[in-house]
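Aim 2 progress update. The chain analyzed this quarter is reproduced below.
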Amino acid sequence: MNASISATAKELQAYLAGSTPSLTKAQLSQIISFSRITLIVGLVFLHYEKFPNSRITPFRGMDTEAFQAATFVNSFILFFFFAVVPLLSMISGWLFFSFLNNARSELTSRMTRRFKSLYLPLALWNLLYLAILWSVYQLNSVSPILQDINIDFNKAGLLEYFNAVFAVTDRPIGFQFWFVRDLFMTVLVSPLLFLMLTRVPLVGAVILGAGWLVGFDFWIFFRSDVVFFFYIGGLLRMHKAPLEISGRMTICLLLAYVALVALRTAAPYAIEDPQHGLTDVFTRGMRLVGVLACWGIFQKVALTEFGAWVARFGGFAFFLHAAHFPLLAAVKLLLWHLVPVENQVWMLVHYAISVLITVAVGVGIGMALARLAPGQFAFLNGGRLAAT
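Predicted structure tokens:
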């Protein structure tokens, strides 16, 4: 079966890559660094969520009755960057399953390292956010920034405070860390994933993929896209599938993804409740095209002079992911007071500037810490050093 999978992977890769030359290790490393920071910036755009004067969430789609152009752009970008978590998970799985021998010791070692690089920073960052936001609550219990966090200080009990920091049975106070938590849970079940990858690779892919498409969390995850795409990354690595995508195929994939995202963004025109049922399955499924399209784009851009410059910031990706919220919420609230007119042009200006300032401040603080207190920065950055 493994030989059959390898043959199928090679046939699919030949179709995707065409005559594209194989990537070197140095090129692949640069592409991964470029991908990480670019995807996290995309995540910041996604986490902007709705405009302060908008009545509906962009996760539903555009507003068909008010601010149609602005809400279309907002929702389109959000759905476009739905490919972030799958692609980051796939890269993580590809890097994790880089071994074939000494599986027990390798898995144990990698699980230990991921505890230090994922779960410990998760707890530390959330403890910091809990202290900050609890202080905000004490000063102003109706502060708007408290509306966007995963704890209600008015009625929170011991379990809510525990989960706010450790994210065991519910999402943490820094909601972006749901991804880090699920990635760590995926690492904890990696021995089972390894067995599936080596014994029943296609069965594993079908089970995890079906669960992901219908929104089943397998009882232990917040979302199953992390474990599914992590598994797919491992499948590609263990079967030594080439990763190149041709320029022509990248354009085709990008056009297809843009069309799918636009269709989903405009869904409220035709569907009363576009966040459930088959539309929800469609929203998940289109990410498969998005992952391929984004990976193809990154391969082309990352190897340019501009791409090499962006890739230098790849070491700050985890820090930006950790620091961008509630920073983004604060920037968003402060800048909204400076908007002269609540029209669609100024809404989009506010959107872009809020994200750019958040990214600049987040990376800037990270660079300053890396230069002035490298040890502390490395711990906050999950043990990852970054060039300054």
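The chain has a mean pLDDT of 93. The chain has one domain: 2-32+65-305. These observations will guide the mutagenesis experiments scheduled for the next reporting period.
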